[in-house]
Amino acid sequence: QVRLVESGGGLAEPGGSLTLSCAAPRNIFNIYTLGWYRQAPGNQYNMVAIISPSGITNYADSVKGRATISRDNAKHTIYLRINNLKPEDTALYYCNLFDRANSQSPDWGQGTQVTVSS
C-alpha cells in the first residue's frame, strides 16, 4: 500500500497564503503523476492540481492563477502553494496518485485541513 504523507495545513486569513507538502516513496514519486485534491464538508473530492514526473502541471479552474504545484526530486516531495486564499478554499486537502484518485479504490490518506477565515 502506497503511503503519502500530507502536511502544512492550518488556519489562514482571506488573502493569505499556505504551502502544503506531500512526501512520497521514491519509486512512486519518479513514475507516477501526483496531485492535490480537496474535499469540503458534504462535497466530493475535487482535483486541485496535478504534476507529472516530467513537471507538466494542470490546475482546477477554481485555483488557476492562485496556486502553484511543484516538486522537489531530491526530497521526493510535492508542494502546493495557494495565494490569495478564499473562504471557499477551506477543505481537507489530500495528496494522491492521479491514477489512484480516479479509480474505484482511491484510498485517501488523512489529509491536512486548510481553513480560511478572518
Structural class by SSE content: mainly beta
> Can you count the helices?
2
The rounded distance between the terminal residues' Cα atoms is 39 Å
What is the overall silhouette?
Answer: globular
Binned strand content = 35-45%
Question: What series of H and E elements makes up the topology?
Answer: EEEHEEEEEEHE
Number of strands: 10
Supply the key terms.
118 residues, mainly beta, 6-stranded mixed beta sheet, 4-stranded antiparallel beta sheet, 2 helices
List the helices and strands and how they pair.
Blueprint: E1 5-7, E2 10-12, E3 18-23, H1 26-29, E4 34-39, E5 46-51, E6 57-59, E7 67-72, E8 77-82, E9 91-97, H2 98-101, E10 112-116
Parallel strand pairs: 2-10
Antiparallel strand pairs: 1-3, 3-8, 4-5, 4-9, 5-6, 7-8, 9-10
Task: Explain the overall architecture.
The chain is mostly beta strands and 118 residues long. Helix content is 7%, strand content 43%. It is built from two helices and ten strands. Strands 2-10-9-4-5-6 form a six-stranded mixed sheet. A four-stranded antiparallel sheet has the order 1-3-8-7, with no helix packed on it. The longest helix is centred in the N-terminal third of the chain and has 4 residues, at 26-29. It starts with a strand and ends with a strand. 30% of the residues are buried. The mean pLDDT is 95.
